[in-house]
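Project standup — Tuesday

K.O.: blocked on the structure for the chain from last sprint. Re-posting the sequence here as requested.
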Amino acid sequence: MKSEIDFVRIKTTFEAMKSGPKADIRRASLPEDLVLHGAFYRLLPEGAPPTPQWQRVIFMLPWAGHHPQAPSLGQGLAQGEKKISEQRLFQLLRSEFPLDILHLRRLLRFSNPTLNWQFFGETLLYWGESQKRNIAKDYFLSHSKSSS
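H.V.: unblocked you, prediction finished:
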């Protein structure tokens, strides 16, 4: 199902912001810290409330680039310039909220992937066990293709 939300536009809006508001987003220790910064509200889609789901999406904006043909998050973690080990992936997959989001941010900061923000934004908005399973599936299928 295609989302009606344009996550690419949110990413583009973030990239066009001045350095101060971008730094406010980058410096947030936890997703809920974003509610104390005007930049968070300027990035919300029109009419969207400042929910924890939107906090997750905006919390990750600084940590992954965008390209429409980019691989999925799982593939990007497996194949990027700085590959993520299985051990680090399992830290993310086995963690509960909010630690899982903090683990994800650490992985993104380390690997600096380029992702398709339309798909990645949806993953973050609807974050849960199903999305984690998809990340694991893409990670391991990507590994099996690259080793054959």
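K.O.: great, moving the ticket to review. The domain at 7-146 is CATH 1.10.520.40 (Peroxidase; domain 1). The chain has one domain: 7-146.
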